[in-house]
Amino acid sequence: MISYLVRHGRTGYSATYRLNGDPGVPVGLDSVGRQQCRIPVTGISRVAFCLTSGFLRARQSAELMLSESRVPIAVDTRLNELDYGDFEGKAFSDYAHWLAREGSGRRPPGSVESQREGIRRILSGLRAAPLCPGPRLIVTHGLAVSVLRWCQASPSTSLTDLFFPEAPYVTALGIFDDELVEIADQRIAEIDLQSRQIPGQPAF
Fold it and tell me: Which residues contact 135 (CB under 8 A, 6 or more apart)?
């Protein structure tokens, strides 16, 4: 079976490169994002199930994309955006400077997770997706799609990058269950090993 990963449509935050990693801050789609989700997504066949993160923009995107069908939609908070802590609502460039200085294994001030821990969480959610009926649509965030694209393109390279190419809005990345499980298992094991090598940073 196959999963189709899609980044949510555009928001006022993402259009201006501001961060929203708190699902309690309701950042919804802007007019461009709503229109993006009303256009049929190229490469997606009929789906039987949909998973979204717990963020408003992901749920709105899924509902608009599936408005002509009765496909059930479920939330898996493991697919959520990173918790940016004190960088919430600020420019991505502020967080990027901090990340480049401190590294992916450190948690931003006020956050419950590092970038590395957040990626592990996301991978665990993707790892569980094949338990749901398929073909399935997974509406999540740019980091999830970017990391998975990177893993497909660099299967033998250690997951040490701090920054990944930006994922386009509402563009499908199709991946079969066997490959998805293999990537998730490999990268989760790698992250766990990296975490054990950094004192004071337990595995997520």
Answer: 1, 2, 3, 4, 45, 46, 47, 48
pLDDT tens per residue across span 3-37: 999 999 999 999 999 999 999 999 999 999 999 99
User: Residue 179 phi/psi, 5° resolution?
Assistant: -70, -40
Instruction: Please tell me the distance from the alpha carbon of residue 26 to that of residue 28, in angstroms, as a whole number.
Output: 6
pTM: 0.92
Integer Cα distance of 57 and 79 in angstroms: 13
Instruction: Give the separation between CA 200 and CA 204, rounded to whole angstroms.
Output: 12
CB atoms within 10 A of CB 108: 22
d(CA 96, CA 13): 16
- How far CA 80 is from CA of 69, 126, 140, 168, 194, in Å, comes to 24, 11, 7, 17, 22
Out of 3.40.50.360, 3.40.50.1240, 3.90.700.10, 2.60.40.10, select the CATH number for domain 2-196: 3.40.50.1240
β-partners of residue 136 are: 3, 49
| Pair type for strands 2-7 and 173-176 | antiparallel
1 within 8 A of 176, measured Cβ to Cβ: yes
Residue 114, Cβ neighbours under 10 Å: how many?
23
What six digits make up the tokens of 117? 């821990």
CB contact at 8 A, 10 and 36:
yes
